[in-house]
Q: What sequence folds into this?
């Protein structure tokens, strides 16, 4: 049920991205809503143990695991996650790809950074040449 | 008897120099280094004249002094610390590429050959790539990168004695005008070429590595060393 402009609801089955603590950056599913501040989350396929988590420490994603029973045990959660293939869908999203590229950039070694610089220059040069060619043909 | 006091906890009434004056520390000799204990005989045997005096007598080798100074002079405490050479950082090993941070070659990326007994790193450019000869460099003035090159063990003749300058060379360098340089000896040039030959063969195997060693390191806007992986 869409409530006005809010498209992502806190609901059982909602996949969330955790922001805080040792599990930061990992995905989990909302299994049960505890109160207006916390939910019970679980992430058996992503290495998150079953625990209460504050809404302010997580980000809702557009993904939902459909028909997950409320308060489901860990085995059930795992079964539903694998059936829905939630993690794979997440990896394909632009959001996840942006995070991955950001992490890759941060982890580059000094030599890697140098190689990136040289390869970008090569690409720029090739593109410039192709553009000049195209302009000449159009003129 | 305390010649100083506190106005407020942590703030003394008199400064360090004022206390020095009040205590008349200028009169007191600072330190007297204790002489090393020598293995001398404590007693000696001396011939004594006189028929009834026993002929020989054992007396102390050094006569006890009749006068002692009025005030004792402080002996410095013996330090129990021993100076050791700096241990090699875990991120540096033979063949690692390293960024020099100080000296005339600052910013250049060089190859580490080994650590010398003095603790300094033995590095080379290679010379043909970036102009850095076989040189000693302190670990502390270096950023270690994660790039490593496979090189064989370097000749044992490269040690701290190899780099020691003898007197006449030092004089020549001092007297030579700033523009002219003292030519490096033939043997050193030959050593450089021999070491570099092996390294350049290894460098040629990796694409971009020779260019990388020839380029200087610098920080651009938004780059912070504590946030960067090397």
A:
């Amino acid at each position: 049920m869409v409530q006005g402009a809010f498209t992502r609801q806190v609901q059982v089955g909602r996949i969330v991205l955790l922001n805080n603590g040792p599990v930061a950056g990992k995905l989990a599913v909302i299994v049960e809503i505890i109160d207006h501040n916390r939910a019970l989350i679980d992430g058996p396929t992503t290495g998150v143990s079953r625990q209460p988590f504050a809404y302010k420490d997580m980000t809702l994603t557009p993904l939902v695991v459909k028909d997950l029973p409320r308060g489901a045990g860990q085995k059930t959660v795992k079964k539903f996650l694998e059936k829905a293939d939630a993690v794979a869908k997440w990896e394909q999203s632009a959001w996840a790809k942006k995070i991955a590229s950001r992490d890759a950039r941060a982890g580059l070694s000094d030599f890697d950074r140098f190689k990136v610089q040289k390869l970008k220059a090569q690409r720029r040069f090739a593109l410039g040449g192709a553009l000049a060619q195209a302009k000449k043909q159009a003129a | 008897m305390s010649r100083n006091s506190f106005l407020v906890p942590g703030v003394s009434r008199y400064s360090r120099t004022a206390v020095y004056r009040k205590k008349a520390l200028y009169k007191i000799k600072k330190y007297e280094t204790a002489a090393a204990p020598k293995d001398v005989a404590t007693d000696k045997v001396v011939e004594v004249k006189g028929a009834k005096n026993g002929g020989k007598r054992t007396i102390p080798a050094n006569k006890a002094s009749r006068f002692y100074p009025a005030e004792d002079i402080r002996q410095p405490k013996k330090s129990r610390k021993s100076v050791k050479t700096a241990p090699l950082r875990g991120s540096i090993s033979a063949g690692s590429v390293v960024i020099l941070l100080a000296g005339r070659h600052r910013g250049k990326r060089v190859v580490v050959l080994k650590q010398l007994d003095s603790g300094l790193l033995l590095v080379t450019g290679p010379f043909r790539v970036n102009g850095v000869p076989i040189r000693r460099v302190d670990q502390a003035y270096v950023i270690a990168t994660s790039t490593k090159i496979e090189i064989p063990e370097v000749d044992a003749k490269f040690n701290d004695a190899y780099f020691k300058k003898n007197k006449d060379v030092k004089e020549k360098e001092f007297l030579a005008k700033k523009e002219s340089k003292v030519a490096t000896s033939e043997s050193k040039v030959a050593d450089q070429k021999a070491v570099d030959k092996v390294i350049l063969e290894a460098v040629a195997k990796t694409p971009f590595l020779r260019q990388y060693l020839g380029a200087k390191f610098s920080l651009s806007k938004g780059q912070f060393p504590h946030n960067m992986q090397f």
About this structure: Chain A touches chain B through nine residues (CB under 8 Å).
